[in-house]
C-alpha cells in the first residue's frame, strides 16, 4: 500500500511537470510568469525534481514511522509554493494537495486548515491582483475545497490507524492474559489432583495399620512376616507420595514463555528476539503479571517512539535476582527519545509495579538503542 502511495505521487508530479513544461515551451498558453530561458528552465527543472523526490521520501516507511515531520515534507512544501508562484494556479495546485495529504500525520487540525486555505489563497491573490491572471481565484476556491476534503480524509485515516494499533495491542494483551489465566487454571487443577491423590493413598495406610495390628497380636514367624509386610507398604507409600508431589510441584509454574510469545508474535514492528531460560519458572500470579505488563509497556514505547526494526528481551538470573533487559535496535529517533525521556503514565506505572515487588528499574541509552534494565528479587514466587 505504501509503495502504491509513492508510485501514485511520483506519477502525479511527473505528469504535472511534463504538461506544464510542454505548455511552457510550446507557448500555447504561456502558463508561466517567466520566459523559458535556460536559467529559468534549469531552476524550474530543479524544483520539479526536488518536489518529486521529496514526495516519494515523505511517503516512505521510515518517514511514516516518525512522530515529527521529516525534512522531505519541508522540501516538498517549499518547492510546491515556488512552482505555484511561477505557474498560474491551475493544474499546479495539485502539488499542494499532495502536500496537504501528508500533514494530518504530524500536525493538528488548526495547522492543517491554515495550510489548506491560506497558502492557496495567498498564491491566488498573487496571480489575480499583481499579475492580473483571470480565473486565478476561481481555481483557488476549487483547489481549497479539494484541500479541505483531503485534510478531512487524512485525519480520518490517522484516527483509524490509531484505532487499529490500539485494537492490536488490546488483542495481544488479551491473548497474553488468557495464556496466564489458562496456565494458572492448570496449576490449580494440578495441585487439586495432587491433594486428591494424597487422599486416595488412604488404602495404603489402612493396609499398613492392618499389618501392624497383626504383628501386635502374633509372635514367631507370623509376627516377623507382618512386620516385613508393614515395612514394605510404608516404603511403597512413602515412595509414591514423594514421586507424586515431586511431579506436580515441577509442573506448577505459570507458562510465561507462551504468554510472552503471544504478546510479541502479532506486533507488526519491531521484530523481537526473546531469550527466556528453560529453567526459569514463575508460580506467583502477581509477579507474572508484573513481568508481562513490563514487557508490554516497553514494546509499546518502542513502537510509538522509535523507528527500530528489531528489539531484544533477555531474562537471566544473577545473585538471587531476576534480571530483565529490554533494548531496541536503535534508529533515527532513538537517541533523541532517550535523551529527552521523561516517565509518562506508562513508565510511571511500570516503576510502581516493579517497586511493589521490591525491584528496581533503570532507563538508559544502551550501546545500540534505548534500554530498560529491571531487577526483581527471587522470592517464593520464582523457582530457578
Explain the overall architecture.
The chain is α+β, with helices and mostly antiparallel strands and 384 residues long. It has three domains: 2-164, no CATH class; 201-250; 254-383, Histidine kinase-like ATPase, C-terminal domain (Heat Shock Protein 90, 2-Layer Sandwich). It is built from 13 helices and seven strands. Mean pLDDT is 76; it is low at 332-340 and 380-384.
Structural topology:
Blueprint: H1 2-26, H2 38-58, H3 61-64, H4 71-86, H5 94-100, H6 109-130, H7 136-200, H8 202-216, H9 220-250, H10 256-264, E1 271-275, E2 281-282, H11 285-305, E3 310-317, E4 321-328, H12 334-339, H13 345-356, E5 360-365, E6 370-377, E7 382-383
Parallel strand pairs: 1-3
Antiparallel strand pairs: 2-7, 3-4, 4-6, 5-6
Put the structure in a nutshell.
The protein is α+β, with helices and mostly antiparallel strands and 384 residues long. It has helices at 2-26, 38-58, 61-64, 71-86, 94-100, 109-130, 136-200, 202-216, 220-250, 256-264, 285-305, 334-339, 345-356; strands spanning 271-275, 281-282, 310-317, 321-328, 360-365, 370-377, 382-383. 66% of the residues lie in helices and 10% in strands.
Amino acid at each position: 500500500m505504501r509503495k502504491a502511495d509513492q508510485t501514485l505521487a511520483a506519477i502525479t508530479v511527473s505528469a504535472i511537470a511534463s504538461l506544464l513544461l510542454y505548455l511552457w515551451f510550446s507557448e500555447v498558453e504561456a502558463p508561466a510568469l517567466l520566459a523559458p530561458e535556460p536559467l529559468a528552465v534549469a531552476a524550474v527543472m530543479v524544483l520539479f525534481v526536488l518536489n518529486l523526490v521529496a514526495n516519494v521520501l515523505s511517503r516512505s516507511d521510515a518517514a511514516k514511522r516518525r512522530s515529527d515531520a521529516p525534512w522531505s515534507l519541508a522540501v516538498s512544501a517549499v518547492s510546491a509554493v515556488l512552482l505555484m508562484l511561477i505557474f498560474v494556479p491551475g493544474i499546479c495546485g495539485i502539488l499542494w494537495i499532495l502536500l496537504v495529504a501528508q500533514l494530518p500525520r504530524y500536525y493538528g487540525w488548526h495547522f492543517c486548515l491554515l495550510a489548506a486555505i491560506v497558502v492557496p489563497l495567498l498564491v491566488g491573490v498573487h496571480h489575480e491582483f499583481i499579475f492580473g491572471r483571470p480565473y486565478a481565484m476561481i481555481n483557488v476556491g476549487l483547489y481549497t475545497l479539494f484541500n479541505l476534503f483531503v485534510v478531512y480524509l487524512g485525519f480520518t485515516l490517522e484516527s483509524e490507524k490509531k484505532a487499529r494499533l490500539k485494537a492490536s495491542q488490546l488483542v495481544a494483551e488479551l491473548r497474553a492474559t488468557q495464556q496466564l489465566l489458562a496456565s494458572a487454571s492448570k496449576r490449580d487443577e494440578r495441585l487439586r489432583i495432587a491433594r486428591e491423590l494424597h487422599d486416595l493413598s488412604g488404602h495404603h495406610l489402612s493396609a499398613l495399620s492392618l499389618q501392624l495390628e497383626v504383628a501386635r497380636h502374633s509372635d514367631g514367624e507370623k509376627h516377623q512376616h507382618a512386620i516385613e509386610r508393614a515395612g514394605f507398604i510404608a516404603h511403597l507409600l512413602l515412595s509414591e507420595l514423594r514421586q507424586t508431589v515431586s511431579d506436580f510441584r515441577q509442573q506448577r509454574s505459570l507458562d510465561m514463555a507462551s504468554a510472552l510469545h503471544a504478546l510479541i508474535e502479532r506486533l507488526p514492528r519491531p521484530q523481537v528476539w526473546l531469550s527466556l531460560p528453560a529453567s526459569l519458572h514463575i508460580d506467583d500470579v502477581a509477579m507474572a503479571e508484573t513481568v508481562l505488563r513490563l514487557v508490554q509497556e516497553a514494546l509499546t514505547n518502542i513502537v510509538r517512539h522509535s523507528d527500530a526494526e528489531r528489539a531484544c528481551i533477555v531474562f537471566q538470573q544473577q545473585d538471587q535476582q531476576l534480571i530483565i533487559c529490554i533494548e531496541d535496535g536503535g534508529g533515527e529517533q532513538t537517541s533523541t527519545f532517550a535523551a529527552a525521556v521523561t516517565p509518562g503514565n506508562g513508565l510511571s506505572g511500570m516503576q510502581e509495579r516493579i517497586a511493589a515487588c521490591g525491584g528496581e528499574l533503570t532507563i538508559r541509552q544502551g550501546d545500540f538503542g534505548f534500554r530498560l534494565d529491571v531487577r526483581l528479587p527471587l522470592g517464593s514466587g520464582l523457582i530457578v
